[in-house]
Structures are given as structure tokens and as C-alpha cells.
Specification:
Helix content: 40-55%
Strand order of the largest sheet: 1-6-5-4-2-3
Strand content: 5-15%
Shape: globular
Structural class: alpha/beta
Oligomer: single chain
CATH topology of the domain at 73-229: Rossmann fold
Largest sheet: 6 strands, mixed
CATH class of the domain at 73-229: Alpha Beta
Order of helices and strands: HHHEHEHEHHEHEHEH
Length: 240
């Protein structure tokens, strides 16, 4: 490793990093993480009318918009009015978080999980591919079958595969134990809009939030979990 002059092994910093740090002042931009968050949330509040949804969902909506940098998603969100309270209660009680893709799990901030909730992704489980072949379906759908032992009361966060949401609905239609909340943000050109419409159309009596249409993604699903794991007023405060 390259070392700067006079530094001990315990405090060595590569010269190229030191040189880069010296050059930081050559471009003017906001560097403070807390200030970046404050300004981002303030910009969202200026640009959208949150009054179109219940007050309990304002913090969640701000987090979702922030995750994708797109204020236009507000009008395509669809929810059950108890989704925020149900999601917060489930997480506080230590509910497992079932995710359809590793990227969703990686996006969940563990420090926000006060109950040290377990995050479960079964996509890479060795049983998933053989089960998908047997069922003649996608691995994402087959992975949902492996959620069955954990499904009751869980927080489900889908941010990738429409087939995962379709399979979840099939299992629930067949009498599977209901999760505590469904955060449904599958993305894509085939099945994404349709899977979310199927969720909306069902009277599952399970709290949910989703984004109509093709848009979605892991960032949204993870942001939904992070929002529900944090303070309800987060992103809504006026700070100076």
C-alpha cells in the first residue's frame, strides 16, 4: 500500500486518496449528508401536494419519491389506508421481512430495524431452481413458495419480479396465511402493471401499497421498508 510521509501503518492512507481529498474544493457542491437529506425532502414538499393522500402516508410518500427522484409517481400510488400503521406495527413487533430480490434486501437499512428484523430472500435457495422447473415457472415465483413457513404476519417487499407478486396472490387465494403488509413494487414491461392491478382488485383485507403501471424497482421496495421502520414524521419537518 502507498503511504504518506510520516504516517504509521495504523494510520496509512493511500496517496491517491489524499490527493483526491485536496482536490475536493475544486467543485462546489453540498457534501453534508444530513443537509442533503433535508434539502431533498424540502424540494419534494415544495413540488408535490401531499394532501391527496392521508397524513399517515405523507412520510412514506416522500421516501418513495426520494428513492427514484420522480415526483410524478405520487399520483400512481395506490394503497389501503391502514398500510402505514400496519407496517410500523409489524416491524416494531419483529416481523420478518420477505424480499423477492437480494437488491431489495441490500437496500434495507439494518440500523433502522429496531427489532433486529430478519430479512429473508429465498431466490438463491438451492431448492428454488428445481422447484421452478417442477412448476414450470420463474425462479422468482418459486422462491415465493419457500416463503410459506414465514409468511404469517410478515412484511412482504417486492421490488423486482411481477411473477413473485402473482405467485403471492395465488398462494393467498389458496388459503396461505396472510402477511402483515404488502409493499408491491415489481417493475417491467411484462406483468408488472397487471400484477399490481390484480393486487388492487382483490379484497384481501391485507394492508398494501403499490405503484400502478410499469414503474417500480428494488429502490422503491427498500425505501418503503425504510420509511416504515423510521419515524412517521421523517422528511416532513421544516428545519433550519
Amino acid at each position: 500500500m502507498l503511504m504518506t510521509t510520516g504516517m504509521t501503518m495504523a494510520t496509512t492512507i493511500p496517496i491517491r486518496i489524499v490527493d483526491a481529498a485536496r482536490n475536493m474544493a475544486s467543485i462546489s457542491y453540498l457534501r453534508d449528508p444530513a443537509a442533503i437529506y433535508r434539502e431533498s425532502f424540502a424540494t419534494i414538499r415544495r413540488e408535490v401536494d401531499l394532501s391527496v393522500m392521508p397524513t399517515s402516508l405523507h412520510g412514506l410518500a416522500v421516501r418513495l419519491i426520494h428513492a427514484v427522484g420522480d415526483t410524478s409517481i405520487l399520483h400512481d400510488l395506490c394503497w389501503s389506508e391502514d398500510v402505514a400503521s400496519a407496517g410500523r406495527a409489524a416491524l416494531a413487533a419483529g416481523a420478518r421481512i420477505l424480499v423477492d430480490a437480494a437488491m431489495v434486501g441490500q437496500g434495507i437499512t439494518r440500523a433502522r430495524l429496531g427489532a433486529a428484523n430478519e430479512v429473508v430472500c429465498t431466490l438463491a435457495n438451492p431448492d428454488t431452481a428445481p422447484l421452478a422447473a417442477t412448476l414450470a415457472t420463474t425462479r422468482s415465483a418459486a422462491a415465493v413458495d419457500l416463503w410459506l413457513p414465514y409468511l404469517s404476519g410478515a412484511v412482504v417487499a417486492i421490488g423486482n419480479a411481477p411473477t413473485a407478486l402473482f405467485r403471492l396472490l395465488e398462494l393467498l387465494d389458496s388459503g396461505a396465511a396472510p402477511p402483515g403488509v404488502i409493499l408491491a413494487f415489481p417493475v417491467g414491461f411484462v406483468g408488472a402493471a397487471e400484477s399490481k392491478e390484480a393486487l388492487i382488485a382483490r379484497d384481501l383485507r391485507i394492508p398494501f401499497i403499490t405503484l400502478k403501471g410499469r414503474r417500480g424497482g428494488s429502490a422503491l421496495a427498500a425505501a418503503a421498508v425504510n420509511a416504515l421502520a423510521g419515524p412517521a414524521h421523517e422528511g416532513l419537518e421544516e428545519k433550519t
